[in-house]
Protein 1
Amino acid sequence: MVGGGAARRAAVAALAAAMLAGVASAAVYEVGDKMGWTILGSPNYTAWATSHTFHLGDTVVFTYNKQFHNVMAVSKASYKSCDTSKPMATWTTGNDSVVLKTTGHHYFLCGIPGHCAGGQKVDIRVVSSAASSPAPTPEPSRGGATSAPAPHPNAAPEALTGRSVAATVAASLLSLAAAVLV
Ligand SMILES: *[C@@H]1O[C@H](CO)[C@@H](O)[C@H](O)[C@H]1NC(C)=O
Ligand SMILES: *[C@@H]1O[C@H](CO)[C@@H](O)[C@H](O)[C@H]1NC(C)=O
Ligand SMILES: [Cu+2]
């Protein structure tokens, strides 16, 4: 009896620890790395974004001089046309952290006139949360004939469902762990 209880307790505690480790592994990326969020030096934010793999729960930080720039989350259409008239969200502190809560594309641009057209825009694609299995998905190499990005179906509803299920499972595991450990 006592031994079984201890074993169960240990198993639950290990599970809870694993869950917490998973949560803690969310990464933080500074947009543009050391260059930050700017037009000076014409950082290539497309190259920056494609050189990273973003997962659910990761954070991107926009650092910039707030006298000269801002950050807007926009639709794909607004991103493409640099339309700053209907942002879904705007940040202006100069040190803005954005948590990536859905899979798929997150489009950001600077709302100061001319800056988006000058390249101050970034498309951050969040891959579905395979964070624990680092199996690289081999990209079929293309001939480079086209620069048009492949259309991505909007996976937001599925992502939300998956996320809330994961959160529920995590929450019940943690309360189970708490109950057993008391
Ligand atoms: C930025 O980088 C992307 C991906 O590497 C490349 O396709 C594109 O031509 C670059 N843009 C400029 C303006 O250099
Ligand atoms: C930006 O904010 C984070 C906390 O959100 C803080 O740790 C960091 O020092 C800030 N950076 C600057 C340059 O203010
Ligand atoms: Cu700007």
Protein 2
Amino acid sequence: MRFDLPGSFRKTVRIRVAALNVADGGSSGYLYALDDLTEIRRLEREVRMQDRLAAVGRLAAAIAHEIRNPLTSIAGSVSMLSAIPEMSEEHRHLLEIVTRESQRLNGIITDFLAYSRGKQYRFDKVDLVLLLQDTLTLVRHRMTAENTRIAIDSRIAVKEAWALADGDKIKQVFWNFSENAVRAMKDGGTLTASIERLGDDWQVSFADTGTGMTPQQTEKIFEPFQSNFEGGTGLGLAVVYQIVQAHEGKVWARSKPGKGTTFILRLRRFDAERASSTTSEPENFGMTENSEPEQGMPSSAVAAPLAKAAAEGRVHG
Ligand SMILES: Nc1ncnc2c1ncn2[C@@H]1O[C@H](COP(=O)(O)OP(=O)(O)O)[C@@H](O)[C@H]1O
Ligand SMILES: [Mg+2]
């Protein structure tokens, strides 16, 4: 049975009823046992999602591999064709379509590969401020080049934000947030990125003034293949989820249709990490994830802090 409590999340409860019978006949009432299954159901959903992510990852690697080779030949041949000087306007237009569509296919494959192969992590002491600024510079250039009416605003409340992380992967997270924000603001708007210190964590947020999402959409965005963007693969945020999990971080979105969306990422501060971690040499260790069966679980080097993090509920998407 499910019910909504005022001011709280929906609860799932199991109710068992047994008649209470006394020895010399007659029933003296009923025994009701109530079990709150909310947390179990949530964990079950999470496990199902992990399973799906793992299966998709294996499939993606195989498909991407098979598609890339013929695609390279197509793109190569087309670029040779378009070098022919005497070509009608119409033919040139057709060739442009082939080029554009092969680029799109290539983009899809790149997403797939990031998703299925992106399991090599190199953890280092990195400055999130620098990573964010790098990404925003790229985004700004793109916005200027493509002549969009999107303003990029940054509110960085700190000088530096050190964390133990894989810098390239974190940039990929920032890039995916930005790319989605841009796509959600077809008619222009503002993307505001910020970093602030919050207890033991850094909180990075990307707020856009785009289309926004319904609660039903928001709930599913981190699952693979959930896309409402034209031509989207629905893998960008699945990759984000994977990366954030490997960092023992948290990521979630707040959104309102017509108002915009804010993505929030929390990563542990480097000094907080040092203070709480007793494993040797937290600085600069390479880390490789198990390829199976538990996707997203880093190897033994950080198994203890990870388990601790899981127990504290820090590991979730
Ligand atoms: N900033 C945003 N504003 C509105 N919708 C968003 C935003 N970010 C993500 N979404 C929704 O989440 C979906 C999944 O995003 P993503 O995993 O990056 O896949 P893709 O970009 O390929 O569609 C998008 O298709 C879109 O429906
Ligand atoms: Mg995307």
